[in-house]
Amino acid sequence: MNWDQFELNPRITVAVKRAKLKSVREVLCFSGSDLQRLTGLSHSDVQQLLTAVATTSRRHPPTPVILLLQSQESNLKLSLGCPILDQLLRGGLPVPGVSELSGESGAGKTQLALQLCLSVQYPKQYGGLNSGAVYICTEDLFPIRRLQQLIQEQTNLRSDVPPDVIRNLQFSDCIYIEHAADLDTLQVCLSHRVPLLLARGLVRLLVVDSVAALFRSEFQASDWLERKKQMLTFASALHHLSREYTTPVLCINQVSDVFNGSDDTLGPRTSTLSPALGLAWANQVMVRLMMLRFPKKVARGNQSSALRRLEVMFAPHLAQQGQDAGVWREGVQGVLHA
């Protein structure tokens, strides 16, 4: 790669060469904070570098996304269990498709993932897929108590569904929980146990919580090539499962700090946070969502919640916009007048 062909400050070019970053793909493997540590550049310098390489990468749309768009099943969507949030996503998560939900700790990512694990079990006329879910935990224990609470509150959350339909669903029996403490275990899970559940029709939703945990803990900055190889292998497995079994995949992701005023269109304009793992991972997902949490409180009845906002960061069929929400006893629901 001839970095001199980019319209970059010579100081940035020298730093990139000194860090032995030889291609745009190598740069895309790192987040902004990783690039700062690797190159010694300032926030603004790294911003210029990322803007330059992002512009180059967007000239060539990622093949996995194109394949999913071509094979998408007649606009089939998996409901989020809330009509307000479904309206933001034009019905819910695309089926098939690999979607990402990022956000800080406590933003409500796992809450929404649990809600989807229940929503997928409803009949199709109520936004479900008549099947269960497999939930892969890579860092924290599965929140079983919160799941049980959500199950008990389904009649309050899903007022659009007849109570007898809800009573006939065996929610907890249809959620299969896996724990993967390392990449090898995750790979075995995705290549053996998950395909078996999908092939038997026992599940129709795959959740990975979180995708960044293992890639951040098992690799140093100097291991970028191996990390990229493992990341693409992981992404390829997700796309294969999604296409083969017409299944939505949701990947929970962590976030990194980025620069104020960034014009990177893959990031939300209302936040100084960006999903972890860089643009190399970003090019592997079809839909990118971010959950934000604010200090402001919202109230409903005798409940109160910190204000959340679900942002559409990127999706080929959606506009970049957001919807205010709250996390209530019965689940995550949109807030029309926060």
How is this fold's topology laid out?
Elements: H1 10-18, H2 24-28, H3 32-39, H4 43-57, H5 63-71, E1 77-78, H6 83-88, E2 93-94, E3 97-102, H7 109-119, E4 132-137, H8 144-152, H9 154-157, H10 163-167, E5 175-179, H11 183-199, E6 203-209, H12 211-218, H13 224-244, E7 248-253, E8 255-257, E9 273-275, H14 278-282, E10 287-300, E11 303-314, E12 322-328, E13 331-334
Parallel strand pairs: 3-7, 3-10, 4-5, 4-6, 6-7
Antiparallel strand pairs: 1-2, 8-9, 10-11, 11-12, 12-13
Helix pairs in contact: 3-4, 7-8, 11-13
InterPro entries: DNA_recomb/repair_RecA-like, HHH_XRCC3_RAD51B, P-loop_NTPase, Rad51_C, RecA_ATP-bd, XRCC3-like_C
GO cellular component, one term: Rad51C-XRCC3 complex
Organism: Channa striata
Features:
alpha/beta, Rossmann fold, 2 domains, 9-stranded mixed sheet, two-stranded antiparallel ribbon, globular, DNA recombination
Structure notes:
The protein folds into 2 domains: 1-60; 63-288, 3-Layer(aba) Sandwich (Rossmann fold). The chain is 39% helix and 23% strand. The chain is built from 14 helices and 13 strands. It has helices spanning 10-18, 24-28, 32-39, 43-57, 63-71, 83-88, 109-119, 144-152, 154-157, 163-167, 183-199, 211-218, 224-244, 278-282, and strands at residues 77-78, 93-94, 97-102, 132-137, 175-179, 203-209, 248-253, 255-257, 273-275, 287-300, 303-314, 322-328, 331-334. The strands form 3 sheets. A 9-stranded mixed sheet has the order 5-4-6-7-3-10-11-12-13, with helices on both faces. It has a two-stranded antiparallel ribbon with strand order 1-2. It is globular. It starts with 9 loop residues before the first helix and ends with a strand. The relative contact order is 0.17. The model is unreliable at 58-73 and 259-265 (pLDDT under 50). Belongs to the RecA family. RAD51 subfamily. It comes from Channa striata. InterPro entries: DNA_recomb/repair_RecA-like, HHH_XRCC3_RAD51B, P-loop_NTPase, Rad51_C, RecA_ATP-bd, XRCC3-like_C.
